[in-house]
Amino acid sequence: RSRLGEEFSGLLSAIVATDAIRPLVDATTSVFRDSRQLEAVLEQYANTDPALLQGRSLEFLEVLKFNQAAAEASSPLHATATHFSDPSAAADVLIRDGQEVVKQVQAKSYSQAAAAVRTLAEPKYEGMDRLIPKDQLDHAQAVIDRHQRRFGDIGPNSASYQEVREKLTGELHAGDIRSGGTTREQAEFAAKQPHQAALQLKGMAALKEVGQAGVAGAAIGGSLQGVFTALHQSVLVRRNATSASEAIVITLQATASGAVRGGSVSAGSRVIAIAARELGVGQVLGDMGPGAMANAVFEAGLSTHRFLKGSTSHEQYRDELGAAALR
Predict the structure, then answer these.
(1) How far, in Å, CA of 107 to CA of 70, rounded?
(2) How distant is the alpha carbon of residue 138 from its chain centre?
(3) Tell me, what's the pLDDT at 235?
(4) Would you state the pLDDT for residue 59?
(5) What's the gap between Cα 127 and its chain centre?
(6) For residue 93, which of 65, 120, 129, 140 has the smallest C-alpha distance?
């Protein structure tokens, strides 16, 4: 009965932990979706010079990062690149609050910040945010400031340059949501190695989700096991079946065990969920029904728990994971 209670505690921890980290689950889903678009657009122009293609990668990297931040904050804001939906649009990125467009953004990434400023000052971009790589922001602002000092308010481009200065940004942002920005080097790397760039982004998002699930599961599992054990031990103390000091030790041990079990089961369940979401449930778990799928997630979590405790070898752990998926 004790083992059954521990396993139930682990499963319940995984369920509650998943709900607790729901924004991170949504953020990982968003990153995987936007990564596919990033790869698709860069593969479409695979024969283009990366020095030119990096401007396109800037747009899609910023969209991905903004949407990840919005999902983590449970915000309704959402960014989309216009490349696929409206290639001739003046704006490269649209930011929506639900269905309403709240911002239009034009993105430019040139080797020289001065060239980007001149292009961004064109009348067709009036009213839009002007996005450039974040490591070029200070230089671009300095270019505009020099221009304004030289020509003042009467220069032929002074008004447009001033608007660029006010709208210039190194990151997508709306309300409290910010992408964090992308450097020219990061944009070039994505243009040259789209698969590796996408893998890095997906990997970091997945690790964040799995890690937080483990932390939440450990806290929940430890609390559940500790409370149940404390209640059981208090009954034994009242019956003089055990001493108070022994009851405390047993409760502390159960709390620690519950934390390890809750953390490993929660983390393990998120690993399987992410894989199933990316590859397709059928490919990961075959033709399993809902009950068998839940059992596979649970058994994989318990296998991870036993492996971390040192109860099973790496080979046994690998075999148990495979068996859980095949049952």
Answers:
(1) 20
(2) 28
(3) 60
(4) 96
(5) 30
(6) 129
Give the other-Cβ count within 10 Å of 119's Cβ.
14
Torsion sign over Cα 150, 154, 155, 161: positive
Q: CA-to-CA distance for 104 and 96, rounded, in angstroms?
A: 9
Rounded Cα gap, residues 163 and 127, in angstroms: 8
* pLDDT one-digit tens code per residue, 58-91: 999 999 999 999 988 989 999 999 998 898 899 9
Return the minimum-mean-pLDDT range out of 91-95, 144-148, 249-253.
249-253
Give me the residue label for tokens 């009348």: 123
Q: What is the pLDDT of residues 259-294, one digit of tens each?
A: 445 445 555 555 555 555 555 544 444 444 444 445
List 77's β-bridge partners, or say none.
Answer: 97
**174 φ/ψ angles, rounded to the nearest 5 degrees:** -160, 130
**Contacting residues for 326 by C-beta, under 8 A, at least 6 apart:** 286
pTM more than 0.70: no
Alpha carbon 16 to its chain's center: 20
Band of residue 152 on the pLDDT scale cut at 50, 70, 90: confident
